[in-house]
Structure formats: C-alpha cells, structure tokens
Design goal:
4 copies of one chain form a homotetramer. Chain A contains 3 helices and 6 strands; from the N terminus they run ααββαββββ. By secondary structure, chain A is of the alpha+beta class. Chain A has a single domain, classed as Hotdog Thioesterase (Thiol Ester Dehydrase, Chain A), CATH 3.10.129.10. Chain A has a 6-stranded antiparallel beta sheet. Chain A starts with 10 loop residues before the first helix and ends in a 15-residue tail after the last strand. Chains A and B meet through helix 2, helix 3 and strand 3 of A and helix 2, helix 3 and strand 3 of B.
C-alpha cells in the first residue's frame, strides 16, 4: 500500500479522533488497531450483547465492522478539509461469526478524487487462529470542504 | 405478497421468538413490528449510542436492520423444521440516517427451496415523515432440518 | 416517476442517440423501447449467439441489460452538458434466462447531483408471459461538463 | 490456491469443454487462458463491436468476463456429476475499459458444498501494461447430480 498518497500528515490522529466520536463503536466495544495509509484494522471482542439467535456474532455486527473498516481505510487518504460518506457496500458472509473476537481489515483498492473503493475482510478469531468470516466491497464518496466534526448536526434526543 | 406459501402456520410466533433471542436487537433497541407472509417491519428509535461521527444513525446500524428485515422476511416462509443464514447482502445508502427512528421493511422477492432473495428498505422517520435512507438486496440460504434454537452453540464467554 | 425533474427537454432523443452509439447493443441485438423521465425499457430477442453452456441467455447478457437499463434510466435525468459512468452494480439472478426474449426495466430510485441509484429488473418472456429473471441495484456517477460524444476517445483498432 | 481440493481429475478439460459450449463467449471473442484448481483467466481482445458510447469496452462486457471467470473458477472444483449456476455478483468498475484487451482473473475465495464465493478482477491491457478496471464478488451454487450438458434444454429458436 506504499503507493497511496497521504494528503494529511496527521491522518492517524484524524482517523483515531473520528473513530472515537462514533458512539456506536463504543456501544459494541470495537477497538481501532493499526491505522496505515489506505488501511485500518478493527477488533471487536465477543460479548453476550452482540449475538444473533444462535449465539454467534450477529451479521449486522459483521457488516458494521466491514463498513467501518472500509470507510476509515478511505478516510486515511483524505485531505484535512474533506470528509466522506458510505455510498454502498456488499458483503458475503462465508462462515459463521464464531469466535472470541472479530478482526476486520479494511484496505483501499482504488482511491479516487470523488469515489474510493475498498475491500474489507472480517476474520473470526478462535483459540488464537483466524478464520475468514466475511468479505466486502465498499464504495465511499469524498465530501470536499466538509469537516468531519459533529457540529453540523443538531442533538436529536435532547 | 399473498401469493407466497406459508409452510408454518405458526410463522408469526416463530419469527417473534427468534427475533427475541437476538441479543443484538436488544442492545440496539430494535422492535419487531408487523410480521407478514414474506415480510417483516422493524423499528429502531434513535438514541445516543447508535451514531457515527456526525450524530446520525451509523451505517452499520442501517445495514443491521436491512440484513435482519430481509432475513426474517425469508424466515417467515420457512418450514418449522428449517432455519436459514445470510449468504450476502448489498446496500446502497441514499440519504443520511437522520431521524427520530428508522423503519425497515423487508420483503421476499423470490422464495426458493435453497435460496431466497429479499429486498429491504430503510426509512428515516423525522417529524412523522418517512424518507428513504437505504435500499438493500439480501440472499438467504435455507438450512433444512436445523432448528432455530440456541442449543447448538456453546456459551462463549463462560 | 412523475416527481423526477428532467433537466434536458430533449432527453428522449439524447438517450436514443447515445444508446445507438453503443456498438455492443448492436452486437447482441438489443432494442431500446420506452424512454421515460427516470426510466427506460430494453428488449433483447433470443438468438443462438447469446447463450451459456445450457442454451439459456448467458448471465453476462442479463447483467449487460441490467447495467444498461439502470444507466440510461439515470441518463434520462442528466443535464444536456453532463454524462455519466457506471460506478458499480449488483445483480441477483433468480431464475434461468429461459425465454424468447429478455425485457429489462431500469428505474431511478434516487437521483442525486453526483450519484444516482437505480433498480433494474430483467424478465424472461416465454409464450407471452413475463417471469422475473434478475434484479439489480446500480450506482451511476454524473460527470459534469463532459459531453456524451465519442470524440474524446481515440480509435483503438484503426 | 494449493489448498483447494479438486474433485474431478479432468477438471481442466471439463472447464474448457463447457466454456467452448458458451456461444456468447464466441460472439464476443473471449479466450480461456489458464485453468487452475479454483482459478481461471480469460482474455478478450478489443474490437469495434464491444463498445459503449465512448468507444471503451462496454460495462456489460466487463461484467460478463467477471461473472464467467468467477463461475469457471468455482466450476474447476466441482465433482464430475455436478454443475453450478450464478446466484449473484457485484462489481465495481474502477477505471474505464480502455485497452487493447481485457484480462480477467477469477479465483475461489471460499469453496462450499452448496455455495462458492469467488473474486474476479478485470484488467485493461494497454501497451503491454495491466491496469485494474473492475473488481467483483460472485456467489455460485452447486447443482448436485446435474450434468453440465446442453441436452436438458430444448432449442428455442426452432
């Protein structure tokens, strides 16, 4: 991934700061691991509140991680004055979310001025071994000149 | 949807009972509304723990609802002795998840012996008006002769 | 679809003229039927050169029609000075392409300044009856200020 | 890919023979290159009949190759008595189909008894250099005990 151009020298901080503001990541207990130029890794430990009806990680949790890992992989290449939004994603679940944790790796496949395409792979970690659980393709759109700050949104619950 | 064949006369109870066992639905606060032959509606009120960095509903939450509405739409047509799993889904987010609640409608497009294809649409409800937020296509696979019960899974957290 | 704003009063001509320049449509024998604000229908009669190994319409033919119907549905809403390109599409094939012809209906779901999302449905027509063969979601991107003419491309085979 | 189990010792012949029966491959001029356990490469030289309105390879051609490369990658792992069909695919086009030829590489990501998930990447070759043009995820379903022969289909054109 060394051929991706980083437009923001503080991209690691910016990704971490934005991730920290996503309350849903706190709700599910996801942790941002590595942040690379064009890539991020996210880890989510298993707990009882993340399950589908059979006690495995819920497909929505798996999709959430894939979407977010793809999104922040793209975000790592954004200019300081830009932000982005998810246009769409598609995910194949190839094995149950059966493990002590999920590790998700999002990687930029093709950066673009307006659109960035990423791949995200979700692995279920069980007894120290990783097994592919899901693979996704994500499309993100750059919003030029829009800060990634919360103040363009009025509180909804207050 | 009146042309879909219901194989389980107790399909409404079965869908509700399975949904109630998904701990992730409790975690996010989702509520199962109508259950029809080949269709379900799910509602999720906004709260502070479901957000992305700008205070809107997180894309993962939107995807979770789409996946689940598609899944239970298909599940409503299953025979009593069968269950199903999500093969894949693809979702376009067409507007921010900006509202007091999300309403998701999952509908079977094409039922099949092995595979069922569903559409799910997610609407953001704001001041009583619904606005399309996301549209998804989901593929579900029937697992014949497998109960939809939690006992084939060992507790993971001990 | 009456709520879609047409930016080009000559949109029908423009769609037909662009379609006519797609040599691949001539190669397969596809015909543009109706052109509406935000929608087009395409018809393709069966012939021996369009098959997969079992003699049905090839999946690539089905995908070609879905992609093109979605694309021209979006194109019908473009301003005269803009063109567009396909960002991505996803298609579920729900029945074999078994018929005397395929009819494809592309419809805009959500128009946007930069991105437009469309649905396309492909029907196999057999003995006068239509049967759903495939359903697709397509994302198109507007290219502002770029003519939809062939002259930005150098001949490749000459 | 050495960890994929080949169930048919004559898989290369079987893939080549099936590909040769797809009349649409002949129509567009596609050529099957390598056949590996869980992978195939397909090449398509540019010609005037394969274009969209700007003279590039049509998106439907790109999708056709992706679908077919994914399909035959999966088919290479099938037992002699089984065949398969495409359930769905999703493709991102990341650059125009601008080149002297397209090379498509289909690879199995996850084989399964009923479903196989593949990745396909399409490259535009120009002046000897490959550039990524599209990336796809494909889902294929095994049809057990069904020969991959044309005789289960009645001639359609009379």
């Amino acid at each position: 991934m060394s051929d991706f151009q980083v437009r923001n020298p503080n991209y690691i901080e910016r990704v971490r700061e934005s991730f920290a503001r996503q309350s849903f990541m706190t709700t599910i207990g996801a942790e941002l691991l590595d942040v690379l130029p064009g890539g991020v890794d996210i880890r989510l430990p298993y707990h009882d509140g993340l399950c589908q009806q059979h006690g495995y990680f819920h497909g929505g949790v798996i999709g959430t991680l894939a979407d977010n890992a793809g999104g922040y992989a793209a975000f790592s290449l954004m200019a300081p004055e830009d932000t982005l939004l998810t246009v769409e994603y598609k995910m194949n679940i190839v094995a149950p979310g059966d493990g002590d944790a999920l590790i998700t790796r999002g990687r930029v496949l093709r950066p673009g001025r307006t659109l960035t395409v990423c791949r995200a792979e979700v692995f279920a970690v069980k007894e120290g071994r990783e097994k592919l659980c899901a693979t996704a393709l994500c499309t993100l759109m750059t919003l030029e000149g829009q800060e990634d700050t919360p103040d363009r949104h009025q509180p909804k619950t207050g």
